[in-house]
């Protein structure tokens, strides 16, 4: 059974560089030889905020719905031994994805699935499920945006009266990892190395407040003159904790950001983006949203799969905007 031209288009358009966070493989967890490691990137022309970003996110959500529906049918079929049915359902779903994926997505998966046309049903089901899991876990990074001279945005930089001078390093050593990272204050740079050894893969810095901060007057966090290593590949996380997170061990809120085009414009991340509390990277379904009136901690993180090895993140200024 050959793949349709539409699916080949999807594969070619599936990211060249990026930041897909693979989800659990469910019924595929006992195997490994045919998994497709999805590495999707942000669309280069998508604005960090505004209508264009909203449209991209909406389409991506539609793609995720198609994927979820396919898995809900295909996975049970596979589990009862109807592998051909599973492969058929997955292939049909893949044929629907192209209109919902950003135009600038290019293939980094093509070489990994280049032989899929000749695969048997089992192998094809594996490859497509890996692709689907990658799409399901994709988060569109915030990136710098052009702000006109007539903009009413007001920037409030973090200073010594707001932000603690020294951050606290939080590495994957808590799980046995060996990643490293440090803050170089005179250079305003976060640098280090992430390692996959011992199931690790993240490095982070956290600025903790002695008393909760009330940022309810602001719309979000901004970075000015942000630059980083491997611009078209590396993405980073902004971490926030509120008073509720203090009651739930190892919980926080995260948003993905990057500067793929090395823009000099400011990067804005609205508080509304922090709509899902996480615990050890896993969503806490039903948890309350972020409360900017009681902020207890802010941090930055480099994490696999987009940052593996040496990294560097620099910005001249960051703070609140409204």
From TrEMBL:
Signal peptide region: 1-17
Keyword Signal (UniProt): yes
Protein name: NADH:ubiquinone oxidoreductase intermediate-associated protein 30 domain-containing protein
Record domain NADH:ubiquinone oxidoreductase intermediate-associated protein: where: 170-313
Pfam families with a match to the protein in the record: CIA30 (PF08547)
Key words, A-Z: Signal
Naturally occurring in which organism (per UniProt): Cylindrotheca closterium
């Amino acid at each position: 059974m050959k793949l349709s031209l539409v699916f080949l288009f999807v594969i070619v358009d599936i990211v060249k560089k990026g930041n897909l966070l693979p989800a659990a493989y469910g019924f595929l967890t006992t195997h490994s030889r045919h998994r497709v490691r999805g590495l999707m990137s942000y669309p280069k022309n998508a604005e960090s905020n505004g209508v264009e970003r909203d449209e991209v996110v909406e389409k991506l959500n539609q793609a995720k719905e198609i994927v979820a529906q396919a898995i809900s049918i295909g996975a049970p079929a596979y589990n009862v031994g109807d592998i051909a049915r599973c492969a058929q359902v997955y292939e049909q779903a893949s044929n629907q994805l192209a209109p919902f994926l950003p135009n600038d997505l290019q293939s980094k998966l093509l070489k990994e699935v280049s032989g899929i046309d000749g695969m048997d049903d089992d192998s094809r089901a594996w490859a497509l499920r890996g692709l689907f899991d990658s799409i399901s876990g994709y988060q569109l990074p915030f990136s710098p945006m052009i702000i006109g001279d007539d903009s009413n945005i007001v920037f409030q930089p973090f200073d010594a009266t707001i932000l603690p001078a020294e951050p606290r390093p939080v590495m994957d050593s808590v799980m046995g990892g060996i990643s490293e990272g440090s803050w170089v204050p005179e250079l305003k740079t976060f640098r280090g190395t992430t390692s996959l050894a011992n199931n690790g893969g993240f490095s982070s810095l956290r600025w903790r407040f002695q008393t909760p901060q009330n940022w309810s007057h602001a719309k979000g966090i901004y970075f000015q003159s942000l630059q980083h290593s491997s611009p078209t590949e590396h993405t980073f996380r902004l971490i926030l904790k509120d008073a509720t997170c203090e009651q739930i061990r190892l919980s926080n809120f995260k948003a993905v950001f990057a500067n793929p085009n090395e823009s000099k414009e400011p990067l804005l991340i609205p508080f509304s983006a922090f709509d899902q509390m996480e615990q050890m990277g896993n969503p806490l379904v039903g948890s309350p949203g972020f409360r900017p009136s009681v902020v207890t901690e802010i941090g930055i993180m480099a994490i696999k799969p987009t940052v593996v090895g040496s990294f560097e993140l620099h910005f001249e200024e960051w703070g609140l905007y409204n």
